[in-house]
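Sample intake sheet
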Amino acid sequence: MLLQTINSPEDLKKLSVAQLVELAGEIRPFITDVISRTGGHLASNLGTVELTIALYYVFNPPEDKIVWDVGHQCYTCKLLTGRRESFCTIRQDGGLSGFPCKAESPYDVFDTGHASNSISVAAGLAESKRKLGSSSRIIAVIGDGSLTGGMAFEALNHAGHLRSDIIVVLNDNEMSISKNVGGLASHLNRIMTGEFMSSVREELKNRMKTMPTIYKTARYLEETVKGIFGPGMIFEELGFTYVGPVDGHNMEHLLETMRNVSRLKGPLLVHVITRKGKGYTHAEDDPERFHGISTFELTTGNSLSRGKKTYTDVFGDTIVDLAKMDERVVAITAAMGLGTGLDKFSAIFPDRFYDIGIAEQHGVTFSAALALGGLKPFVAIYSTFLQRAYDQIILDVCLQNLPVVFAVDRSGIVGQDGPTHHGVYDLSYFRHIPNMVLMAPKDENELRQMLYSGYRYARPVAIRYPRGEALGVPIEDDFHEIPFGTWELLREGRDITMIACGNMVATAMEAAGVLADDGIDAGVVNGRFIKPMDENLLAEVAARTGRILTLEENVVIGGFGSGVGEALARVGSLIPFRSLGIPDVFVTHGGQGTLRKSLGIDLDGIVRTVRTWLGKE
């Protein structure tokens, strides 16, 4: 196999074009086989195999800097840059990251995981290069999905203004080109990006600038033709030279185009058309499901890890029921319809479903205005991505005291996607905002009732819930409103009270059972409201046990435990108090159970903490 001979881009450069095509044919099944066993981002990586090979063949990384937007399409890069033997460990405990990671390889330029920042990174690197006299080329690879994010256009605007010497590769996997149009476009593109034609074009421009009327007319004609026959007009207006579209699976055309643009000064935008999931039929047929997928059976493409309902499933079912009750209920998500469980809602209520693209800031403000206009918006966005709309949550929702319900999916430890995706900050960034109500369910039935309660409260509400399977408790068909701001005493104790929120409640109950065998009588409270807190019940259990341990899957700084400590001060209780949660570190990737154990927030960690505190360890 050719792949076995590639340990660096230098090895790649020794191959012929025919061998590069053969290599692409080896890489696809290699990636598919590994990801079927580990889970990961499959469709996006299968779509960029030839593009990645062409970039690392023509350019000279790590001296030349290739920045991958989001980074979920970096698997071929890892295979070409000395990580083939360890690729089977991708996203596993102690293994390779599923995203670019500077600590992992000099070929990984920037730690990524969120969309739309690659052009900003490239522009900054280009300015550093200009000021420090570097000769390296700077390339940003961004998908058409990431280009829906406003930050990408902010960066395009600024880079065009600076005349940054960058190459932006737009990986467009939503468009298709017919044979004739694609062949003609590729042919014309290769001609127009050649050195001779590029120099002629620039020379003609310079000469015509001395004849303003002719130049203005020529420029108008050029833009008119581009507007009619190509999608590049907007990029040209932003100051970029537009190149494309290019067939992203034609190796010969890709190589020629990349060689040509490598000789030109930026800013340049190369428009490459690819097919998401290419080479694996199931991923081509259903690229959304295979974008990020758990383990699956290679032959059928069927998932191997489906068991109980997930919290995401319960959200999806519940919002459909709420929408059937009230025609004002609408759903908003940011390019995550399937991931947030809104696929069923979008099918039943297409006119009440809004996918606003990777534009969380716009989505939150849009939802605020929907609420202002009399609708009942539910905003379903992963915790880690909702961080991007922090300002809009404060000023456009909470300052206006508008009834927007935030369904905050993937809160807490998410596992293999690592530090850019763990949702461990939301309790801290929601808790201190005036007018915000913040809740976390102990199980899937409580999630259903919280969604209904949030619908009823008529004010800003955030409900955070974890990734993965729920507990399997019975789910009530009927709705009932949870009394506002109340906690739930699940177990009385004499020696200590554990106040837990969200998925930590079930673990606290298990821990109480284990501690009972040691003669430690531990009480458990479901702290389902993070804000407002139930200060009456807090004062009661504090007086009863004289010790409180809070449990949360969030950073301890500014989190649930911090809130309980503040509440204890308000009620005048000076009892011993400790918080258990995520310490002040970025949590790496790995299995959820392994990560919780390493952080001391699993069953053993809780039991050990209590035993040590009470002198029983």
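Comment: The longest helix spans residues 17-38. The chain has 25 helices and 17 strands.
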